Amino acid sequence: MAKKIILASVVVFVGWLVLDFVIHVVILSGAYEQTKELWRPQGEMKTVLMYVVSLISAVGFVLLYSWFVSDKSTMTGLKFGLMLGLIWGISMGYGSYSVMPITYGTALVWFLGTLVEMGFAGWITGMVFKEGGAATAAK
Fold first, then answer.
1. Which of the residues 34, 77, 80, 130 has the least number of beta carbons within 10 Å of its own beta carbon?
2. Which pTM does this prediction carry?
3. By the 8 A CB rule, do 139 and 3 touch?
4. Contact by Cβ (8 Å): 115, 85
5. How does DSSP assign 98-134, residue by residue?
């Protein structure tokens, strides 16, 4: 079980790093530039803290799945991830939009990006934990 938790956590973490780059650097960099007064300057960003938060979140996501989901399959993992993505994405995108002067486009991308990231995390986690999954084969 520990090997599956570690494997899924690492893959989720790396996947989130890649998706975060696409979402925040490729897609939203123009929107961030238009609202630069809201963000820390690049030199003041807490990059290490962002990585630590992402890693803890990845481990937490995987632990929630491993502890509370009994039907461990790729499809169940995807559904689990999409449900959490819907919940967290609404809060991240539209909750932030309700209190911050960000553009609607930024809120929408934060919502959809969170949905995609959580869906990915669930899919990967379900794949690792299903019977005969990647971690079982690695034994």
1. 34
2. 0.89
3. yes
4. yes
5. HHS---HHHHHHHHHHHHHHHHHHHHHHHHHHSTT-H
The neighbour count for residue 90, using CB atoms within 10 Å, is 14
The phi-psi region of residue 126 (left if phi > 0; otherwise alpha if psi is between -120 and 50; otherwise beta) is: alpha
SS3 138: coil
H or E element, residue 17:
helix 2-20
Q: How many Cα atoms are found within 13 Å in the side-chain-facing hemisphere of 62?
A: 24
What percent of the chain has pLDDT above 90? Answer: 91
Name the nearest CA neighbour of 80 among 47, 124, 113, 45.
Answer: 124
SS (H, E, C) 19-55: HHHHHHHHHCHHHHHHCHHHCCCHHHCCHHHHHHHHH
